[in-house]
Amino acid sequence: MDLCFMTGSLSMDTDTSKREALNNRCVIQPPFKLRTEEPILFLKPPSAYVREGSPVLVPRYSSSLHHEVELGVVIGKGGTAIPQAAAMEHVAGYALCLDMTARDVQDVCKAKGLPWTRAKAFNTSCPVSDFIPKERIPDPGNVKLWLKVNDQLRQSGCTSQMIFSIPYLISYISEFITLEEGDLILTGTPKGVSAVQERDELQAGIEDVVTMSFRVDRKE
Ligand SMILES: O=C([O-])CC(=O)C(=O)O
Ligand SMILES: [Mg+2]
């Protein structure tokens, strides 16, 4: 996994008012009008990846770093304009991911109609687990994800709550971005996102498949 990746944002957010607010914001971006049911996408660079053993760093410019636990889909076979029916043939496996988000910065970006890059794509903004082969998650549309901060449960949800299915996301994205082997698609977070502080311990898992932990540190 060493290429860029994307998030089908809000895919699992059950908070309708938040979804509507974001969709409205996006409608104002010329020249396209987004259909309300279209996923909001953003990119993170490979330098956003962080693996267990290294800390998640709070950017200097943020005082509200939020965790978002998400199922990541790892592309095994690239393609353009992949039909939904063939989408799962392009999946090599999965990874548990955190879409770390500088929420205060994202709020400013939203208010000004600016891209979310500084809020979502900074160094260490994507903690990832080990690669999970496809066979270990036979039904990715129905697995439970959880996240604890200092042993307290903050997020718990099931991928069955996703607004957009994995085949839909693969097909939708590949219409305008050619997917390549190693790309990782984050699929959106369940409710319960909250702020983390320096020295917090984050622990997250997918059912009985994988767990991972990360310590939060502040960039000096
Ligand atoms: O940060 C956001 O507003 C959207 C997002 O990534 C998610 O729902 O997973
Ligand atoms: Mg997210």
Automatic annotation (TrEMBL):
Give every Fumarylacetoacetase-like C-terminal domain span.
28-216
User: Sorted alphabetically, which Pfam families does this protein's record hold?
Assistant: FAA_hydrolase
Gene Ontology MF term list: acetylpyruvate hydrolase activity; acylpyruvate hydrolase activity; metal ion binding; oxaloacetate decarboxylase activity; oxaloacetate tautomerase activity
| A GO cellular-component term linked to this record | mitochondrion
Look up the EC number in the record and give it: 3.7.1.5, 4.1.1.112, 5.3.2.2
For this UniProt record, give its keywords in alphabetical order, as a comma-separated list. Answer: Metal-binding
**What SUPFAM superfamilies does the record tag this protein with?**
FAH
Recorded catalytic reaction(s): these are: a 3-acylpyruvate + H2O = a carboxylate + pyruvate + H(+); 3-fumarylpyruvate + H2O = fumarate + pyruvate + H(+); oxaloacetate = enol-oxaloacetate; acetylpyruvate + H2O = acetate + pyruvate + H(+)
The answer to whether the entry has keyword Metal-binding is yes
User: What's a single GO BP term from this record?
Assistant: carboxylic acid metabolic process
- Which family, according to UniProt? Belongs to the FAH family.
- Its name, as the record gives it, is Oxaloacetate tautomerase FAHD1, mitochondrial
